[in-house]
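Data availability (excerpt). The following record was deposited with the supplementary files.
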Amino acid sequence: MKKLLSKIISLTIVFTFIFSSLVYGADTSEVDVKVLETVTSLTEESQVEVPSIKKASINKMSSNFEVATAKTYQALSDYINLNNSDNWVYKQFGKSATGAYLNVEASKTGNMVIQILSYTSNTDSSVGIVQRTSTGDVMNTISNGLRPGYVVTAYVPVVKNTEYQIYLSPANEGDIYGFRAAVVPGGKSGTLSTSSNVEKFAIGSGTDIDHKAYTTYWKMTAKKNGRLTVAAQDVYSGSKNVKITLCNSKKKAISATATLSSSGENIANAYYGVSGSSKGTVYYVKVQTSAPIYAVGYKFTGYTTKPGTKKSNATSISKGKSKSATLAASTSTGSQWYKVKLTKNKSFRINFKGNVAPGSSVKMQLLKTDGKTGLKTLTIKGKVNTTNEGYIKGTVSKTGTYYVKIIKGSAKSSAAYKISYK
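Predicted structure:
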């Protein structure tokens, strides 16, 4: 993987309270994964050393050629890499032709990345190239002037099992052109595989035949509780944002919509707390973008603690110990309970560190020994690319068992976090 999203900016928010102490909350950056190289940057060095061509490998210009299908970033980048000269199909203009076309037909609906190479010895100094319907109506411009020894890379929208023409004009007899194309499917739900290697991320077409954004649902399954890290990027030009929303098995939103920038040096991530089961709990990542082609993937980190959900079954945290847990995304609000033993006039510190879903918040609340009266509350807001940290520290005037609640700010809040007591 080469290039990817935005260098993460650290944002710090400080909260101050009086409670024999100060309570602080802060946001810090975490991820530093380079962005994927885009289609346009992969081919920006468009002048290439054209391989020698055997006469037997040259087909007539009007004959069809096979369009590949690319479903992962790695498959697409390998296919169109200019260092890869094995998959060109060469066509030659016929006698006295002033223009010629190549018939193309894809087996999937989506955006087709097409590359066209003008052979070094071609006599046309500049050739215009367009996508046309099978009846000759112009749909999209691919190039206004392809020169000999150069390659043009572009995308054109296609509908499966529909024939199109790639039309070149003007043209001279005997000129040779190389072609290769791969369609990236769009508009259909897919399945994501967890991977820390972003080059293996799934890819999809973000826009349809009319250049309008698709809404696509990508399925993933959680077999245990943990942190879901979702990353997405415009991999055509790197200039378009990608919007993602976490949904439940019924495709109902259980998070706010997060906007992931495709500019900068590092990949943008959104974090969510999710619950899993041995049979697998199904989630969907809803994607919307004006990017013609985007990449999306996820990484899962398991968390072991299952905290109590009320005072009577609060999870105990011993001094010097910690618990890692998730406040899971769902369609309802909720809270988790912990208990700590505090000693009169002795300093303590309760730390929160983890990831809160973008556009949502959670609260860490310290309660008196009755489990009802609040002493201090810290609100922690989630952002893209952000690890949240906060703490409550101070002393108490009475020895006893105190309670700590981690509370959803709304139904669409979630978090994966570690809570510790010092």
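Summary of structural features: Residues 73-80 form the longest helix (8 residues).
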